[in-house]
Design a protein that fits this description.
CATH superfamily: Gcn5-related N-acetyltransferase (GNAT)
Strand content: 15-25%
Distance between the termini: 33 Å
Structural class: alpha+beta
CATH topology: Aminopeptidase
Number of helices: 5
Helix content: 25-40%
Order of helices and strands: HEEHHEEEHEH
Shape: globular
Radius of gyration: 15 Å
CATH architecture: 3-Layer(aba) Sandwich
Largest sheet: 6 strands, mixed
Strand order of the largest sheet: 1-2-3-4-5-6
Length: 165
């Protein structure tokens, strides 16, 4: 897996790849962070998905000007976020951003880590003129819905459709 360091020059980049919020440090995700991301995912979902994450991070680095971020606490990666910017897909204009994936180690949840990651992602989106951000959440996940509500999200105009085969 290679990481494209030519993506948007984030606020974290301009500060030597670190932005401190209290004791939480937000920095650009690096290849060496993959084992920590996989470990957080395993703690949250209960299964190992190393190849999935390697592919997902490579795709993000290749396809989006938004650099994935990690949160560190006492030198340990305890959270991450992947954001994407739209490039006029499916009739969605290029001023749209997406919170694709956010993960926080369960032992470190409810400590402001997810909030810090989302706020830094918002800052990075603004730097490339994104003015609207979307995400998708399972409507039965009340805790996650409350989190995004607290971050200022509201119900959007798009409708998720599915058909089981």
């Amino acid at each position: 897996m290679s990481f494209n360091n030519n993506a948007v020059n984030t606020k974290a980049d301009r500060r030597g790849e670190r932005m401190a919020i209290g004791d939480i440090s937000i920095r650009v995700m690096k290849q060496k962070d993959l084992p920590a991301i996989v470990a957080i995912d395993r703690k949250v979902l209960g299964k190992e998905r190393k190849e999935y994450w390697a592919q997902k991070l490579e795709h993000s680095r290749r396809e989006s000007p938004i650099t994935p971020l990690v949160a560190e606490l006492d030198g340990k990666v305890v959270g991450f976020i992947i954001g994407l910017a739209s490039w006029w897909e499916y009739g969605v204009p290029d001023n749209i951003g997406w919170v694709d994936t956010i993960g926080v180690d369960p032992a470190y949840q409810k400590k402001g880590i997810a909030r810090a990651l989302v706020e830094e992602l918002f800052t990075n989106f603004k730097m490339i003129d994104v003015d609207t951000v979307y995400t998708m959440v399972d409507w039965r996940n009340g805790e996650l819905l409350r989190f995004f509500d607290a971050m200022g999200f509201e119900k959007g105009d798009m409708l998720n459709l599915r058909k089981r085969l």
